[in-house]
Automatic annotation (TrEMBL), chains A, B:
This is NADH:ubiquinone reductase (non-electrogenic). Signal peptide: none annotated. It holds the Pfam family Pyr_redox_2. PANTHER family: EXTERNAL NADH-UBIQUINONE OXIDOREDUCTASE 1, MITOCHONDRIAL-RELATED, NADH DEHYDROGENASE. The lineage of its organism: Bacteria, Pseudomonadati, Bacteroidota, Flavobacteriia, Flavobacteriales. SUPFAM superfamilies: FAD/NAD(P)-binding domain. Belongs to the NADH dehydrogenase family. It comes from Tenacibaculum platacis. Keywords: FAD, Flavoprotein, Membrane, NAD, Oxidoreductase, Transit peptide, Transmembrane, Transmembrane helix. InterPro entries: FAD/NAD-bd_sf, FAD/NAD-binding_dom, NDH-2, NDH2-like_C.
Length: 433, 433
């Protein structure tokens, strides 16, 4: 990999998401060599992927070049590489561009879509964890509308205009809301010769409420917002299968749809090589101790979505969101530096700053630890927090400009099929990184 | 295609580039049915493709959704379709989504890269006529740098960092300048462990001067700018072949390079079906009369790059640029309306507003009919004209914001490999629309 061996200990970080970046930042300009590995050359701001998928933002404005982030840092190396194996005994990772030894290893690989073993669903539904996947969804929505124009078969047209989103978490809710706004403001103008009433947006949730991680009030209000926007919300309904045409469920309702988006589950993006006992089954996350250490390995840590730290308050690990990832990354950097200086590490305590979701124009729900509110003000808070969290001034400015424009003009102008999806949806294309 | 037959005559326009859009605009809200066909759902502002390729702009900001452009126009239809054949006798076009009859046909398909029959060059070089192709170039540049980091073979590294641009027209010159600025400002920071002196940018021109269509002064000054930026300009050198490794020429100089961009020629994007005599050989443009009519067909017109109108001043047709395309589109719309009202058509006279090219920061050349100037002021004029010509307020604003940011920060922040190219460069991927 052409990375020099120095007298400094080498910290290898796998993944440039929220967790990995926070750890790397904490280790800047110390007596350490830091190597960051990622399969993309950019950081993805995942909370706004749904706006890329629905034509509200350009992909470049929610991505930030990883090299730029660190290009003035001494002893820092970035390599564009996919890690394929961890060898804890040899203290070495294998990657697509060769192997690399480490003194400390930080696994910050994040999460990937969980299809719970259903290969049909994996094959036919769309996922939205990366920028290329979001562009696939954008293309498919628009391509289906173009096709709906052409068919004279009413059933076929209905199927092309029927959208099913599986999973009532923040991703599913935000995407359903954005689609509903496209239905209201954009698509009737763009497709005046289509009967827009045929367009249906279904949000399917297996349990009895949406936004399960949030307060009851937030969940109710979000559902209310969605229904007002014209989304059909299905609760206590479990999707069993999808053959590319029909979504079958455990209830009476089945859905003929050409576009099914799977937002019903995530799992850790774990890597081959660490012993089986390190992995929490099903969730595929690494079991870590209070210092994010993947025991029994003293020098291997996992942070963010891929880490599962059990505590009294969080018996199944912390929520798979940006905040725990950032906080764990920051603390781990401090802990590694402390250990190198012979000091004690501090255990991780999650500072829950709250959570929020946006449903549409002037419609959001916010749960702060001491205050829960919904509506216009929540929507402004949501926007401010997300704008503030984006990396880079240019990104902030471009996103802000797009939001102001979209707000004033009731528009989403990046509805471009730049990366056509249809007739290419072989598995290989779908999973392109 | 599900387009209603009305009592209005139907005008079918193939292509939503500068020419097609100008014609469509001129036919708005008249007693006509207008059908616009394009293989993309967006208009591409081709003059700025090189900035997408070099990470200065996001693709979405130089594209505009075609449906949005016309979504408040009566009797206007857009279809996402590729036209495969023209049947003049039956007054019908065949497309990827079925056939369509016309009363008037306007061919505005633009131009495509001309490899002059060299299949090796077609296979191994990069072209830059569309957004996906520009993104391929952006990815390849960055991927080659990532790879250059990894190899310990100096010759291999030199090859990966050696860029060859064939063709000294505006495209080649602007791209060479932008690459030179990346070399100066961006890449040394992003790749501090690479010896940036190994990076070479070669611009190869077969004739004795670059920017042949412009004034001698502009050509000389542009060359001067390029050389100051560190570009190696090769004149009177003809590229004969490229096998994916070595560019061979008719001179003594050969170039080992992993990235060869072919900007040495364009030809009309003609369509099967019109008789051979309509086509100017080699250039593949339709021979048209003074009214842009493809004789002997009274109701078939060609405008823009794909049209070749011989005149005393332009014996080989008008230059393949935006201005003739826009002017021909506008006049043709008026002429069709005139004919429908029994009035006479007006012959086309090209109003040459001049031409310009930018080489880099504060460096451009502008030839106006009565004034030729170079340098900082030319650069501001270039920017103003391009900003003003972009379609859509949002695009103008985003591009402006990026330019201001890039100017102040000496940066180009969209250096993201969102669409990986390497190891995928089979012919099929390369030519994806």
């Amino acid at each position: 990999m052409n990375i020099p061996q120095t007298s400094f200990p080498r910290v290898v970080i796998i993944g440039g998401g929220f967790a990995g970046l926070a750890a790397a930042k904490g280790l800047e300009n110390e007596e350490l060599q830091v190597v960051l590995l990622d399969k993309h050359n950019y950081h993805t701001f995942q909370p706004l992927l749904y706006q890329v998928a629905t034509g509200g933002l350009e992909p470049d404005s929610i991505a930030f070049p990883l090299r730029k982030r660190f290009n003035d840092i001494e002893n820092f190396y970035f390599r564009l590489a996919e890690v394929t194996n961890i060898n804890a005994e040899r203290k070495e990772v294998s990657t697509s561009i060769g192997s690399l030894s480490y003194d400390y290893l930080i696994i910050a690989t994040g999460s990937t879509t969980n299809f719970f073993g259903n290969t049909n669903i994996e094959k036919y539904t769309m996922e939205m964890k990366s920028i290329p996947q979001s562009l696939n969804i954008r293309s498919l929505i628009l391509e289906n509308f173009e096709e709906a124009l052409l068919t004279s078969d009413l059933e076929e047209r209905k199927k092309l205009m029927n959208f099913v989103i599986v999973g009532g978490g923040p991703t599913g809710v935000e995407l359903a809301g954005a689609l509903a706004e496209m239905k209201k403001e954009i698509l009737p103008k763009d497709y005046p010769d289509l009967d827009i009433r045929l367009m249906k947006i279904n949000l399917i949730q297996s349990s009895e409420s949406i936004l399960k991680g949030m307060s009851e009030k937030a969940s109710e209000k979000a559902e209310d917002f969605l229904i007002k926007l014209g989304v059909d919300v299905w609760k206590n309904l479990r999707v069993l299968d999808y053959d590319g045409e029909t979504v079958s469920t455990n209830g009476e309702d089945h859905f003929k749809s050409s576009t099914v988006i799977w937002a019903a589950g995530v799992k850790g993006e774990s890597i081959n090589g660490l012993e089986a006992e390190c992995i929490v089954e099903r969730a595929a996350r690494y079991k870590v101790d209070g210092y994010n250490r993947v025991s029994p390995h003293k020098n291997i840590f996992a942070i963010g979505d891929v880490a599962c730290m059990n505590s009294e308050k969080y018996p199944y690990g912390h929520p798979m969101m940006a905040q725990p990832a950032i906080q764990q990354g920051r603390l781990l950097a401090k802990n590694i530096l402390a250990e190198l200086k012979g000091k004690n590490m501090k255990p991780f305590i999650y500072n829950d700053k709250g959570s929020m979701a946006t449903i549409g124009r002037n419609k959001a729900v916010v749960d702060l630890p001491k205050w829960k509110f919904q509506g216009v003000f929540a929507w402004f808070v949501w926007m401010f927090v997300h704008l503030f969290s984006l990396i880079g001034f240019r990104n902030k400015a471009v996103v802000f400009l797009n939001w102001v424009y979209n707000y004033i003009r009731f528009d989403r102008e990046t509805r471009l099929i730049i990366r056509p999806y249809k007739n290419k949806n072989e598995y290989s294309f779908k999973n392109e990184i």
